Amino acid sequence: MQYYLDGFRSGSPDQKNAQPNRREYGAHAPLPETVDVLIAGTGPAGLCLAAQMSQFDDISTMIIERSPGNIAKGKADGINTRTMEMFQAFGFAESVKRESYWVNQTAFWMPDPENPANIKRVGRVQDVADDSSEMPHTLINQARVHELFLEVMKNSSSRLQPDYGWMVVDLSIGDEHEGFPVSVTLQDTGVNWGEIKTVRAKYVVGCDGARSNVRKAIGGELSGDSAHQAWGVMDILANTDFPDIRQKCLITSAHEGNVLILPREGGYLFRMYVELDKLKDDERAAERQFSQQDMIRVANQIIRPYTIDVKEVVWWSIYEIGHRMTNRFDNVAEDAVGEQHPRVFTAGDACHTHSPKAGQGMNVSMQDTFNLGWKLAHVLQGRSDPGLLRSYSSERWAEAKRLVDTDHEWARIMSAPPGESDLDRDDEPRFMRQFKENLEFTGGLAVHYGPSRIVGSSEYQALATGLEVGRRFHSAPVVRLSDVKPMQLGHVAQADGRWRLYLFAPQNDTGEAPSVLADVCQWLESHPDSPIQRYTRSDEDLDALIDVRAIFQQTFEALNYETMPPLLRPMKGRLGLQDHEKIFCVDHKGEGDIFQMRGINRAQGCMIVVRPDQYIAHVLPIRATSELKVFFDGVFVKP
Amino acid sequence: MQYYLDGFRSGSPDQKNAQPNRREYGAHAPLPETVDVLIAGTGPAGLCLAAQMSQFDDISTMIIERSPGNIAKGKADGINTRTMEMFQAFGFAESVKRESYWVNQTAFWMPDPENPANIKRVGRVQDVADDSSEMPHTLINQARVHELFLEVMKNSSSRLQPDYGWMVVDLSIGDEHEGFPVSVTLQDTGVNWGEIKTVRAKYVVGCDGARSNVRKAIGGELSGDSAHQAWGVMDILANTDFPDIRQKCLITSAHEGNVLILPREGGYLFRMYVELDKLKDDERAAERQFSQQDMIRVANQIIRPYTIDVKEVVWWSIYEIGHRMTNRFDNVAEDAVGEQHPRVFTAGDACHTHSPKAGQGMNVSMQDTFNLGWKLAHVLQGRSDPGLLRSYSSERWAEAKRLVDTDHEWARIMSAPPGESDLDRDDEPRFMRQFKENLEFTGGLAVHYGPSRIVGSSEYQALATGLEVGRRFHSAPVVRLSDVKPMQLGHVAQADGRWRLYLFAPQNDTGEAPSVLADVCQWLESHPDSPIQRYTRSDEDLDALIDVRAIFQQTFEALNYETMPPLLRPMKGRLGLQDHEKIFCVDHKGEGDIFQMRGINRAQGCMIVVRPDQYIAHVLPIRATSELKVFFDGVFVKP
Ligand SMILES: Cc1cc2nc3c(=O)[nH]c(=O)nc-3n(C[C@H](O)[C@H](O)[C@H](O)COP(=O)(O)OP(=O)(O)OC[C@H]3O[C@@H](n4cnc5c(N)ncnc54)[C@H](O)[C@@H]3O)c2cc1C
Ligand SMILES: Cc1cc2nc3c(=O)[nH]c(=O)nc-3n(C[C@H](O)[C@H](O)[C@H](O)COP(=O)(O)OP(=O)(O)OC[C@H]3O[C@@H](n4cnc5c(N)ncnc54)[C@H](O)[C@@H]3O)c2cc1C
């Protein structure tokens, strides 16, 4: 962590210095009249966006929630590895790692062929494939995830807090040229129930869940599966003789239905999902009146010969959900694209809903707004033209679609009769094989954004075969040169709206002029065509917009810090202090060589451009300065 | 982390449920009349003890501080690996790892033989030897360490806070049979300056620094070096062309003196120590009037040809200190040992002071009270007789003595004329060689308590050559069987006053009866001679006093959870929930085999008894139940 740039201050480094004249949140303090970004809903989508926006001192944000406070329990609990990587950028991945359950192995149980009334373990699968992410797949209750985002907000310079007890009832979009064109009608859901208030915003984001009023206001409609799936879900403190109770388990019984076991944070709690439409007819008929006791009874039938002795039901629910989505995630109709720029967006369950089986609901919701946040910031800060905002809907719609399709495919495979040749190739049960094939996808690692003004072509992909354009930057171990610290390169990326430019040096390049790396740094620092020169404002630090880091092929003893290019040791902040965290070399502690792990061309090196949301925007030859210029000219506008 | 044992609760798991009728800390709330433990001073020693005591719901603690609040800057900054291991037990090692500077390499600079007016790097040493600890050596300001302990206190069930603005002026020890025999006179140092108040305590611990009033009250006197060493110390935000500024550096100039560079948390700050008695005569003469500017000028002379451009002086001080210590760390005079039990203790700087060069001051202070805390708890809870308390002074006095001696030895070697054969054996500068030899010591890892009622003999040491009786339990990687989680075995030890008993299974033992491991578990759980049977109270969980964990030689696939001994899956808490975190196996992810790493006899296995402060109390054959009984009979008294 870097801090004290503008002088020493005691206390937690996570807490930023407070802004003067920031909004007051005391009792009876008024709501603001206008705001840059108004967010509806404090679910994972809304809180992730609020936490992101709170990182920008010059943008005002307001987040509205119908309920009187944060949820205490229930809802989703799966944090895939991709989301953990994002949490790292927000600074709380370590907290989640410490508090959460880690999914290390997933166990599969099926009817015992010798006695089909009983279940038997048929196999286990390592849940996070080696080197697929440096992060674990974790399970923790959604309320706690909310709290961690709330802490980020509260630690920000605006000390952002939700406005609980207000709901968005409607909104209207006025003239583009008004300062705050979106007029939002709020209704008090607290003591002054029914009281109406209007707030005007530059942008509105509906993170208000499956029954979203924001979606309705922009004419969006969820469509898709008409047949909803119903799940009984229960978080319990219970004892059992089932030996895999602390492992994620997919359990299929011969005749009683299926149950999914998810062990949870704290070492005692676990969750059970019972797929209600897979129950026997008599069970299912009672679905509407299905009770806690029914669910416990059914689970006990499924896991025979084992039993579950429930001590405390923490939360339970019948969760009915279809795979449904809207046709776009903003207010611009297909025929107006190009003429009109979006002012209102929807994210998360407000525009797409998913079965809990793949554990994606909470994850995609946050990834939606992590995609949107930096784009809003760029436009509000005048760094990019508002045309950039359209990419939110196109990128995230395609991902939601892929999610729905994958789940349908999974369902098709699972429900096909046994023995079909393409499905039952070998001994391994098909759902185990399919689970393995889906791991990258369920880990959130398969997301792949198509070419656009913010995703370049893959012309030079061969220079870094393991860092694919359009996919997330896949971290790997490095050593920081200045202090010889072993670390993950990906962890330099904070949720701060900045772009990263990784310069992977060609073999034998030490950074000392004359060298390719020295030339590129020189160009980046001072050439009039350099995006840093063109788009960084005169009152900003050299790395305020594009944060350049270099990675050398040598280990630390073979490099000289004093001959490194000045761009890699920039003076920053109020005091003009030197930043010593831009230069990396290859790990010498047996963690692996990043050049080899990510397939980087050793002879040539390369440049990797990474977006503020950690997605790879471009892979370019190390000397491709003109391509770099062209790419960033498509992203930014002159200040 | 394990939590929710007594039911689900939302919020941070670090925050314990609050006690009913706990003390109120609001403005104008009264001080208590009596308290079990009164601690004087909120330095590292006092706060570590307060954090420890706050873990025991049935013990009341009060911590008094003369100043009006926590310090904001300055003082010590080095956290050695041993202290990091202790922080892990308190739950905040991850926070320190995230926020702090890590000392990875220490660089040595000496006069350039070709131009002695300039310095030149002569070498580097890896600062934490491979597998000497799983923790890094870190640097972070003392104020922040204080804050992290304060958080532990505040999260405890008593919501313990310091009483700032009071000083201990004197104390007297009354009759042993009074409930609260120590009468402590406090004086208000705040608004009601001079007001006197008396609090009676069962035990008093003077953590009140080098000028300790508690030490004076029990007739202790610091003695040792009469010649104080004087150091100029300065925490600065500065730029420099000195290339190793983000590495710990020992710099010796030809004629200008020595400087020690310690990079600090946040990436910009660093500390410089200038050894004032090594300065040229004209500099030294001015020692008393030595100013900030002098210090900066001298540092610039020493590091020639490089320069330091100071942007902000965060803190600076002339720190004068001798290696001094008292002859005992409690109130019992030598001739009364055996007749009298200690009631008053001193810890940290109150009873021993050290040169900052070895970076030990803050570390030993905390290790002092970590040694004392569980002993106080055992006696106050009636688990041990008060004779146990004497071991605090004997164990910690010997360690302080070793520290003083080692520092003297270091000084002797450093000041001997060059060319003496035993000191200059080879090319490597003697101070670099000596630094390497001292690493285990400066890491806090050389601490070795002698045999006593709480440290057994080393008769069976050959069964675990890497886990030495009397030294700290050296962690190693394992995998937890129930959830296949890769982790450090040492991290199961929390600062909760419990003993750990590690059962290392013999080869091929799977825990399934009949087997050696099953037998031992059976004995521990139910035999009347078992210390668990004898000393655990009937209303307590089976592992409340002695926490048994088993480690098997197989990897996870080769073991069956369902056939493990019941002792290793105990039912606990209000709900009788099963604990699934007692059984470990060998790592399968390439982190290493604990049996091999710690030299454990594969054929026989062994038992390792670990004290609540993480020191190894005993190594025993796996079947040595009668020796185990004898050992614990020496520790505990029947409830
Ligand atoms: C009862 C329930 C159980 C679930 N169980 C699971 C599960 O077991 N597994 C799983 O993967 N997923 C589950 N989910 C889904 C998962 O929680 C969602 O996918 C995830 O929360 C989506 O996040 P979101 O931020 O888009 O929406 P939500 O988390 O739904 O958040 C929307 C928020 O907006 C608020 N809101 C709604 N309307 C307005 C308005 N007009 N104005 C202001 N605020 C408004 C709501 O009160 C809510 O706080 C469950 C959802 C529900 C509701
Ligand atoms: C100015 C200064 C600079 C230092 N610099 C370094 C350094 O550079 N490197 C290094 O390794 N170590 C340094 N130290 C030493 C290091 O801080 C100590 O070794 C460490 O703090 C010892 O911890 P402690 O808890 O024993 O005592 P302290 O940290 O000294 O804490 C004692 C506490 O007791 C309080 N107190 C004193 N008397 C009373 C009383 N009668 N009643 C109630 N409260 C009382 C004090 O206000 C203080 O808060 C420095 C110490 C000082 C004072």
UniProtKB/TrEMBL annotation, chains A, B:
Cofactor requirements of the protein: FAD
Pfam families attached to this UniProt entry: FAD_binding_3, Phe_hydrox_dim
Segments traversing the membrane: none
Domain Phenol hydroxylase-like C-terminal dimerisation: start-end pairs: 447-638
UniProt KW keywords: FAD, Flavoprotein, Monooxygenase, Oxidoreductase
InterPro entries (alphabetical): FAD-bd, FAD/NAD-bd_sf, Phe_hydrox_C_dim_dom, PHOX_C_sf, RIFMO-like, Thioredoxin-like_sf
Sequence segments annotated as region (Disordered): 1-24
Keyword match Electron transport: no
Record-annotated FAD-binding domain positions: 35-406
Gene3D superfamilies, per database record: 3.40.30.20, D-Amino Acid Oxidase, subunit A, domain 2, FAD/NAD(P)-binding domain
GO terms assigned for molecular function: FAD binding; oxidoreductase activity, acting on paired donors, with incorporation or reduction of molecular oxygen, NAD(P)H as one donor, and incorporation of one atom of oxygen
Function summary: Serves to protect the cell against DNA damage by alkyl hydroperoxides. It can use either NADH or NADPH as electron donor for direct reduction of redox dyes or of alkyl hydroperoxides when combined with the AhpC protein.
Similarity comment: family membership: Belongs to the PheA/TfdB FAD monooxygenase family.
Stated name of the protein: Alkyl hydroperoxide reductase subunit F
Source organism: Reinekea blandensis MED297
